[in-house]
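#struct-help
A.M.: can someone run this one for me? Single chain, 763 residues.
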Amino acid sequence: MRTSSRIRPGAVASWLRDRDPELAATRRAGRTALVMPALFALCSQVIGSPTMATFAAFGAFSMLLLVDFTGPMVQRLRAHLGLAVAWAVLICLGTLVADETWLAVAVMFVIGFLVLFSGVVSSVLAGASTALLLAFILPVTSPVPFADLPARLAGAGLAAAASILAVTLLWPRPSGDPLSAPAARVCCAAAEQLRTDASLLAGGPAAPSTGQCRTRADEAAAAAAELRTVFDATPYRPTGLSTSSRALVRLVDELTWLSSILADSVPPLDGRPACDIDAQSVRRAAAAVLDEVAGLLDTPRGSPDGLRAASESLRKAMADMERNATTRLPVGRGGVGTPSQVHPVIGALDLSFRAQELGFATLQIADNVALAAAAERRSWFERLLGREPDAVTRPLAAARERAAAHLQPQSVWLHNSLRGALGLGIAVGLANVTSVQHSFWVLLGTLSVLRSNALNTGQNAVRALGGTLAGSIIGTGLLQLIGHHGTALWFLLPLAVFLAGVAPAAISFAAGQASFTITLVILFNIGQDPDWHIVLLRIQDIAIGCAVSVLVGLFFWPRGATAAVDRALAEAYTDSARYLAGAVQYAIGHCGTTPASAEVALREGVEAAAAAHRLDDAFRSYLAERGAKPVPLADMTTLVTGIVGLRLAADAVLGLWRRAGERDSEPNRAEASLVLLSAAGQISGWYRDLAAALGHNASVRDPLPRNPAAEAQLVESLRRDLSDERGQATDTAVRIIWTADHLDAARRLQPSLVAAARPDGPS
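D.P.: on it. Structure tokens below:
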């Protein structure tokens, strides 16, 4: 699979416009730059307590820069209050065990594991993990008499109070995801195109003109392109994404998929083919659903009743179209014995199928947005414990089930939690044994570069040391320029904090490390004669932390979240391809004398759904890792969403034939069955090959081309079957053609998947 560069065109601009919904680096850095220096000045200069100043400054740093809770303001305030309480508990525990090295190492390991592993439960805990770790690292690496505990708690309390005020008053977090507005515009534009197409098919004096149809199609395509541009401007999503945010990430590809279906299903403008009124009804019903989806995207916490009713109307319209498809085809009493008589029938069936395909895609989008809206309506306690929307289990039971599911030897989240906890424990012991000054920064170096695979750990260690060296040189230069005018450091501190917050996201990890080192140089020299020798100590401290991180990363589980996603993708594509082949096999059972049973296909569908659920967990783990991703978010999302399209095709085929009623035992369908079997084998085989390539990082096959010869053979085999003695196409013949269309829809997914999976594909 492909790798990506860290900086993309427009990445810096997108950050400065605050377009990323999860990191929001500019906003958080701005708040931190105002609050952190003010608290440090208050505690060190006014109150005169260095201990309180340290905990106030780093408490504000953690609570403002390292977390960004989502949801309404009330829920965000509850989250910050919960974080403040957790900080108080961890500070007390860290102060209590800091004097004994063995006890500090053991408790660091336990706390590190619990904090890191708790992220599997919910995005709230995953997003707060680094801030929680710092709450324990800071006191455990700075042994003091227990009498100093009140000053530490007071500093953390001031930081919590200031953070809550800053979140409320200073640059509040936007209530909506930046993807919501452009996604809503795509839905509105697609709805307008569907209504225009339906009016064109209906004909009459009120039918739209050719220019109007083209205008609507262009508007829908432009809206989809804008959504993709906004999405691609974000190189990656940091920290664990919430359920609603993950649903919106998938929505981008689903809307792109819908736009491609719309482009393929535009009725010919030079002649209106015969089309039953049911296909028009499906298009109008799909337009109504998309209007409701757009409304729910604009107001995520609104009532879903309108969307639920519109979706039910769409399902009814699709069922009516399927039931009446055979009675509205342009078939005369003489049958369709000649090619000129076949083409109008196939054209009408294709138009009805396109309406059916649009309906399935629209319902998938509606279900996804309904899930996101339901997730937004959860209480803060349900968010904290990761309770799924509309789940029947209690929040605590849901949290236990999710955690238990990852207490398995193959769980990457378990591996990362154990490795991170062990690395932090080793760093604590090493800092105490070597008596390194300011051993907190040894732990910070370990925490900064510890990632989920050894290769990235090594790269981040090099960049961390390089950034630290660059920051030290710049800091030394600043100290030389300032000389004995130490007051100037107070004016530089807010700027340094702001750069330290923005640089990792907008520029690079190394730039962020350099900016952070400059901030440390300033903090350690405020209030005393500037001493550039502190920068040499920082290099030593962070180098020890980096070395620990690299060694632990090399020794334990060198494959991480990216490899887990690859494996989950491979399993999901394998199971979904098997499900599609099984659904077609069930369909063929209705075309001959062999009894047809849906039991096997239904079981394969359950297995495919379970594999898709495991993939979602692995995808969340992948998104939870901070730092540059080896695969761009847009490409990884395309591969993950491809599972949806493949399973949807299998669901459609299975449902189509389960609603067929009595099995048709006509003996002249053998040739059509062979064509379907061949197409299903080729398409499912291609997806199995894709799964093997993803699982072993191998080359990906070219997408399958369209096969006009097979299509002609299928039509030829059904020529006499397309009409009965009443001049109507038989129900089985229509379902066979629609099954072939569903297989072709699965084939049409392949080019986008190949572009996302190949290392030489476009960015």
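A.M.: thanks! The first helix runs from residue 11 to 16.
D.P.: also worth noting: The radius of gyration is 30 Å.
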